[in-house]
């Protein structure tokens, strides 16, 4: 069938659209090439076919091919510039991955993969990692696992429900529909359990999430997780219960003299339930081993931090406490907090491993515990580092302050460079709804019409890199007559290494505003 063509006017007069061809097939609508004369990075072309509204992002080359996604009748789909300009393949350290409509990982994130700060000699993250590892002798360490994993590894193996917000493109970097940059070290948990190479293991790795911009959040950060398991059958062959074996192992663990607050029982039928396939005595023994092991590690770290901190005094006693928590991978679960410089600080999360995870890893006879922590959070406390961006600095004034062969020392900040605050206000597209959190719908639409705050953060990072210190919403206004929503974000521009001029920040801010319009279809105020 020959395609039927018609002329379409340029959107807002800034594009001359020569023609668009379409043909109807048994499978629906097939769109052929749209020929453009573009004068701008992106414009929005609206077309309509039988009640289906299609919004297509147009890239700046003449005779560009526009990729349409046909939504259901009456629905709206946004094809942003990133979709139209993504390469055919993404190559990471010699491995090639095909891209598709799900791809949302920017070049700046891909370029961060080879850095592997947790393995860099004399880097504070590497020093922190080694300090933690030293408290778990005999545990097998995995520190160089590749960060690109399948959605099965990252989500399915851990029992993430299909509608979990973590699966959304607003939160996760997708290489393609079935491949992501891991959002946590637990993406390797099932494979490590399945390999069954040791009774205990530690994994340290770079992880990736689309997130807020402030002094404690960065799209690439580093986690450490560990686990310890026991074999019920092996214990039985020795004529013992697994609980008896665990209590014998507890006697071998180091003791500490720090005050511990732990007012809750090992499990609670409502607040912190026992798993149906675990005997009470098993869960109690596992919890006791977990808590003794992690208390020893945390006490060791914070005693080192106490010696380095000017704020701590010899009279300030270290205290820790256990708080009941919920995690989808463990039950019962806890968080460990430390009283530090006048506040209770959450340090890590942990719990008894969910038995289905072990079942799916083909080791159903094993039971055990697992924990996870953020290396940046620990290192910031250990060294009094005030801004997470510093970990990525190549400035010798930062790097020269750390050495594996020297005692822990408090970080001495550079001179504080001045901040430059600028606001950006815009009207959302009428079809958009502001979403501070991710949509509950799964699978996440590759082309989303809903506005998400993480999109603003991603654009700010793309334009400004590490020259933006934080971004936060200062105003949310809905027009009483039109119902249109307006948002205002305050951008704090500040370099860690030099003073930014007004001209530099103005140029960054103009580029930021232009890209918000191009990518999100907003209208600047």
Describe this structure in words.
With 525 residues, this protein is α+β, with helices and mostly antiparallel strands. The chain folds into three domains: 4-85, no CATH class; 116-145 and 197-206 and 222-399, BirA Bifunctional Protein, domain 2 (2-Layer Sandwich); 420-524, Alpha-Beta Plaits. Helix content is 24%, strand content 31%. The protein contains 13 helices and 25 strands. It has helices at residues 81-85, 107-112, 124-133, 151-154, 189-195, 232-237, 242-250, 280-308, 355-360, 375-383, 396-399, 453-464, 502-520; strands spanning 4-6, 15-25, 28-38, 43-49, 52-58, 76-79, 89-92, 95-98, 140-142, 148-150, 174-176, 179-181, 200-208, 220-231, 259-261, 319-327, 330-340, 343-353, 366-374, 420-427, 434-435, 451-452, 468-478, 485-493, 523-524. The strands form seven sheets. The protein has an eight-stranded mixed sheet. Strands 23-24-20-25 form a four-stranded antiparallel sheet, covered by helices on one side. The protein has a three-stranded antiparallel sheet with strand order 1-2-3, with no helix packed on it. Strand 16 (319-327) and strand 17 (330-340) form a beta hairpin. 37% of the residues are buried. Mean pLDDT is 81; it is low at 1-84 and 437-448.
């Amino acid at each position: 069938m020959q395609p039927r063509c018609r002329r379409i006017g340029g959107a807002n007069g800034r594009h001359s659209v020569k023609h668009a061809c379409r043909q109807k097939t048994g499978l629906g609508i097939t769109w052929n090439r749209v020929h453009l004369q573009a004068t701008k990075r992106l414009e929005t072309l609206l077309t309509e076919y039988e009640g289906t509204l299609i919004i297509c992002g147009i890239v700046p080359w003449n005779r560009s091919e526009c990729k349409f996604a046909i939504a259901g009748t009456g629905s709206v789909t946004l094809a942003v510039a990133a979709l139209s300009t993504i390469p055919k393949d993404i190559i990471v350290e010699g491995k090639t991955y095909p891209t598709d409509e799900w791809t949302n990982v920017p070049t700046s994130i891909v370029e961060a993969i080879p850095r592997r700060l947790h393995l860099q000699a004399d880097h504070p993250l590497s020093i922190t990692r080694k300090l933690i590892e030293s408290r778990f002798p005999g545990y097998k360490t995995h520190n160089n696992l590749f960060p690109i994993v399948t959605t099965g590894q990252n989500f399915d193996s851990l029992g993430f429900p299909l509608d979990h917000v973590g699966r959304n493109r607003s939160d996760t970097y997708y290489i393609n529909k079935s491949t992501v940059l891991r959002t946590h070290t637990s993406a390797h948990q099932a494979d490590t359990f399945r390999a069954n190479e040791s009774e205990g293991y530690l994994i340290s790795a770079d992880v990736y999430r689309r997130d807020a911009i402030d002094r404690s959040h960065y799209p690439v950060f580093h986690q450490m997780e560990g686990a310890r398991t026991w074999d019920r059958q092996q214990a039985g062959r020795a004529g013992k219960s697994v609980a008896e074996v665990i209590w014998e192992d507890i006697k071998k663990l180091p003791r500490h003299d720090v005050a511990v607050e732990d007012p809750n029982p090992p499990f609670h039928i409502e607040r912190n339930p026992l798993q149906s396939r675990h005997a009470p005595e098993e869960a109690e023994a596992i919890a006791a081993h977990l808590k003794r092991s992690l208390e020893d590690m945390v006490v060791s770290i914070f005693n080192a931090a106490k010696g380095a901190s000017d704020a701590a005094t010899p009279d300030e006693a270290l205290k820790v406490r256990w708080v009941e928590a919920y995690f989808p991978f463990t039950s019962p679960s806890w968080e460990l907090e430390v009283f530090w410089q006048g506040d209770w600080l959450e340090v890590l999360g942990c719990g008894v491993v969910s038995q289905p995870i072990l079942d799916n890893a083909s080791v159903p006879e094993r039971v055990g515990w697992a924990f996870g922590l953020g290396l940046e959070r620990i290192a910031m406390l250990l060294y009094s580092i005030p801004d997470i961006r510093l970990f990525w600095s190549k400035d010798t004034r930062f790097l020269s302050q750390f050495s594996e062969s020297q005692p822990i020392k408090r970080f001495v900040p550079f001179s504080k460079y001045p901040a430059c605050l600028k606001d950006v206000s815009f009207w959302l597209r009428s079809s958009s709804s502001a979403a501070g959190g991710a949509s509950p719908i799964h699978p996440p639409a590759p082309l989303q019409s809903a506005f998400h705050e993480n999109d603003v953060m991603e654009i700010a990072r793309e334009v400004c890199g590490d020259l933006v210190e934080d971004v936060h919403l200062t105003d949310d206004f809905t027009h009483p007559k039109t119902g249109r929503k307006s948002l205002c974000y305050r951008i704090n521009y500040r370099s860690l290494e030099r003073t930014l001029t007004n001209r530099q920040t103005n140029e960054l801010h103009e580029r930021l505003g232009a890209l918000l319009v191009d990518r999100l279809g907003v209208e600047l105020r």
